[in-house]
Write a structure and sequence with these properties.
The complex is a heterodimer of chains A (93) and B (691). With 93 residues, chain A is mainly α. Chain A has 3 helices and 2 strands. Chain A has one domain. In chain A, helix 1 packs antiparallel against helix 3. The longest helix of chain A is centred in the C-terminal third of the chain and has 39 residues. Chain A is elongated and about 60 Å long. The relative contact order of chain A is 0.16. A two-stranded antiparallel sheet of chain B has the order 1-2. The longest helix of chain B is centred in the N-terminal third of the chain and has 51 residues. The chains are: A mainly alpha (93), B mainly alpha (691).
């Protein structure tokens, strides 16, 4: 039971990490790569390419970390509960 | 009252006191208190406050000294990390780079924030669960043997040392600007402030000082920005309002490119470059001719009763003339290169918004190639800064100081939040300052320029200089040279704000430089005392003995760094970027694979770190002009580049090379034992009793 909880916890952690890393990489590559093309659009009072690189991407990075913080806390709580249920009193509390 | 509430009350008091100081100085300035007094008050009072916090937090306890007792709440660790992270280069340099390079400067903004994603996802919580004192500690425990630890300690010291020299240079620049002390004296005054903190209280004192320093630096950065924004657009939220200014700057840039006087300046500069080239054929004769000419000019100006500023400028030029043939040769080469660099539209500055402006995706093949190269280099530099951010030892150790892994994650989010506040502001500041320069300064009579131009060019002509190249008596953009390092420091003066704002900004820059220097000095001293002295040389050393060794080392390293900084190496950002490339190549593969790949072993880590560092070092040595001279590299520069990537981003080659070497060598040697597997499990899974 504990082994299953551990492997589930780690698989989910890896999946979350990988997913967010992909998001991070996409933002980091797309924003500069297409900056010139995006500049012909306007939004927020700025050329979009410039705005994304100067403000938008930063806020998205922050969002990635916030999602990670919240989800990991949940995953860890579930892991603790499962270990507790399997071995009352012995596991992490 | 909980610890957090206690802290909140103290720092609220600190902010109030700082606000009172600002208000007092503003009133004193209006009442006509002499300027050096205002500058000195800001300098002395803020440094005294840091020293006071350092003194209150003095400690000799090992856990307190090395990791601040591991009870720093997430938000406060975020504040401290933000101050630790934002260096003189971030505070002084970033807006300057954005001013000079336009869109290209955003690579720094993206790199220095995006790196925190890597830190949060891949490193910080795991290192916190590992729970020792330093980064080499982790590599030593994970990979076993003394070699990984030794290489890691060496790399941590080298990287941090390069970085700390740059901080101390910033301290010297700011104190000399703020008080009129000489540069060298400024360095040692500022150094006193750093030493009191890290020397007396180690990480504990540094942490609580850094929180205060963050508050000072963010206030100092935002006050002039908001003021300029209100002044120019009437909108107090600069990150929204500067969109319209961006457009006006772009319009004005187009106007200046077409301006006949600007074109004339460019023609004259080209003639000058050709002239300097001719002088280089026979420097000795040219030197004598120039000396006579300059003396004549001073005499003529005096006889004409010309304005004092012009006479002084001519005299200064005469006083700084070359005295030997070697000096003359260097001066003419410099003149040729700088004239050529400036003999371009907008004085060689990139247009503010247009990405990769020196190329054109729709142009001929050469323009397309330049566009692609600029875009590739932007991405390479950005990735390099990101991986370096995640691997900087002084930032990583900050996450050892939180109470748990969950708090460490939370703390990364707070760090990025506080850092983002400043990095959102930097492009806005660059644009608002550029608006002032293009609309307020360019076009003024050369003899009636604002006072700051003279003050700064007296301080160091490399930072600000004005030469009426076409002799029309009016300042063209092409005749003004503003170094990136002065954009933030001089922003209040450029925008016509009262003098006390200038002092406030300088105090903020000082806080940024001191806080980073503190963290770096501690990292160097701890790597040497904890990892080299205790773990390798003298494992019997007592905890108290280790703390004393670390304190002595802090002193020694600080003085060494100050001596090197006194050599006055300009162009701050170049050296910082080199440090990032080296850090990413040395640490990133070994740290990340150490957590996520069970098969990674000691031999692999050693191979990976050495390969990464060598590839990075090789690329810099063959591509950076000063290093090429040092090592006598004669192969043409074009043949040394890989994919046209600038040496500043050498880490993009170092990291993959290190990863590859690490994987191959790990697979070719024995898998790590059960002890290592247990360590990995301890890092990956929440532990009993962990909150």
């Amino acid at each position: 039971m504990v082994a299953a909880a551990r492997s589930r916890f780690w698989t989910l952690t890896l999946r979350l990490t990988l997913g967010l890393l992909v998001a991070w990489l996409l933002i980091s590559l797309v924003v500069p790569w297409f900056a010139r093309d995006l500049d012909s659009l306007r939004g927020f009072g700025f050329p979009v390419g410039f705005w994304l690189a100067a403000e938008g991407a930063l806020l998205l990075y922050l969002l990635i970390i916030v999602v990670y913080v919240v989800t990991m806390d949940r995953l860890e709580q579930r892991y603790r509960d499962e270990v507790d249920a399997a071995e009352p009193g012995a596991g992490p509390t | 009252m909980t610890f957090s509430q206690h802290l909140a009350r103290r720092y609220a008091l600190f902010l109030l006191a700082f606000g009172a100081l600002i208000a007092l100085m503003a009133m004193a300035d209006r009442a006509g208190l002499p300027r050096p007094w205002i500058g000195a008050s800001f300098l002395v009072l803020t440094v005294a406050a840091y020293a006071g916090i350092g003194f209150i937090c003095r400690t000799s306890n090992e856990v307190e000294y090395f990791v601040a007792g591991r009870r720093v709440p997430a938000m406060y660790n975020g504040l401290a990390t933000a101050a630790d992270w934002m260096s003189a280069a971030s505070f002084i340099g970033t807006a300057g780079v954005l001013y000079l390079q336009g869109f290209a400067g955003l690579a720094y903004i993206l790199g220095w924030t995006g790196g925190y994603c890597l830190l949060a996802l891949l490193l910080a919580p795991y290192l916190r669960r590992f729970g020792q004192y330093t980064v080499p500690d982790f590599l030593g425990a994970r990979y076993g043997g003394s070699l990984p630890r030794l290489i890691a300690a060496g790399a941590a010291v080298a990287v941090s040392f390069v970085y700390v020299v740059v901080q101390i240079y910033g301290v010297g620049l700011i104190t000399s600007h703020l008080t009129g002390f000489g540069f060298e004296l400024g360095i040692f005054v500022g150094l006193g402030g750093v030493l009191v903190c890290s020397f007396l209280g180690g990480m504990r004192a540094v942490t609580w000082t850094q929180v205060a320093q963050y508050l000072v630096l963010i206030v100092a950065y935002l006050v002039p920005l908001v003021w300029l924004s209100v002044k120019q657009t009437g909108n107090p939220v600069p990150i929204v309002s500067y969109g319209s200014q961006l457009e006006r700057v772009a319009d004005r840039e187009r106007e200046l490119v077409a301006d006949p006087a600007e074109r004339q300046v460019i023609e004259r500069l080209k003639e000058r470059a050709a002239d300097a080239e001719r002088k280089l054929q026979d420097p000795r004769a040219a030197m004598a001719r120039d000396e006579a000419l300059m003396a004549q000019r001073v005499a003529a100006l005096r006889a004409d009763n010309a304005p004092l500023v012009s006479i002084q400028r001519a005299e200064r030029e005469y006083a700084q003339r070359p005295r030997t043939e070697a000096q003359a040769r260097a001066a003419y080469t410099r003149e040729r290169d700088s004239a050529l660099a400036r003999a371009q539209p907008l004085a060689g500055m990139a247009p503010q918004t247009l990405p990769f402006a020196n190329g054109d995706p729709a142009g001929d093949s050469a323009a397309r190639q330049r566009f692609d190269a600029a875009r590739l280099n932007f991405i390479a530099l950005m990735l390099c800064l990101m991986m370096g951010t995640a691997a900087m030892p002084h930032v990583l150790t900050r996450y050892y100081t939180t109470t748990s892994a969950s708090e460490a994650r939370r703390s990364v989010a707070w760090s990025l939040f506080f850092i983002t506040l400043l990095y959102l502001a930097a492009p806005a500041l660059a644009v608002l300052v550029k608006f002032e320069v293009l609309n307020g300064l360019v076009g003024l009579p050369v003899d009636h320029l604002p006072q700051w131009v003279n003050r700064w060019s007296r301080l160091d002509p490399n930072l600000v200089s004005v030469r009426d190249v076409n002799g029309d008596g009016v300042l063209q953009l092409g005749e003004l040279s503003l170094a990136g390092d002065v954009i933030v420091l001089a922003a209040p003066e450029i925008g016509g704000l009262p003098y006390w704002v200038t002092c406030l900004v300088a105090a903020g820059g000082l806080a940024a430089a001191l806080s980073t220097a503190d963290g770096l000095l501690l990292t160097i001293a701890n790597a040497l005392s904890h990892d080299v002295y205790y773990r390798l040389l003298n494992p019997q050393a007592t905890a108290a003995g280790r703390v004393i060794v670390s304190k002595v080392l802090v002193m020694v390293v600080a003085f060494l760094a100050a001596l090197i900084a006194a050599l006055k190496i300009t162009d701050i950002l170049q050296f910082v970027s080199a440090a990032f490339s080296l850090a990413s190549a040395a640490f990133f593969p070994a740290l990340v694979l150490g957590i996520f790949w069970r098969r990674a072993n000691g031999a692999g880590a050693v191979a990976g770190m050495l390969t990464g560092l060598s590839v990075c070092g090789w690329y810099m040595a063959t591509n950076l002009p000063p290093l090429r001279n040092l090592f006598g590299v004669t192969r043409p520069l074009a043949d040394c580049q890989w994919f046209g990537i600038d040496p500043i981003a050498a880490g993009v080659f170092g990291v993959p090379a290190g990863l590859l070497a690490m994987v191959l060598v790990s697979l070719a040697t024995a898998a790590p034992g059960a002890e290592t597997q247990a360590l990995i499990d301890r890092m990956r899974f929440p532990q009993p009793g962990e909150r």
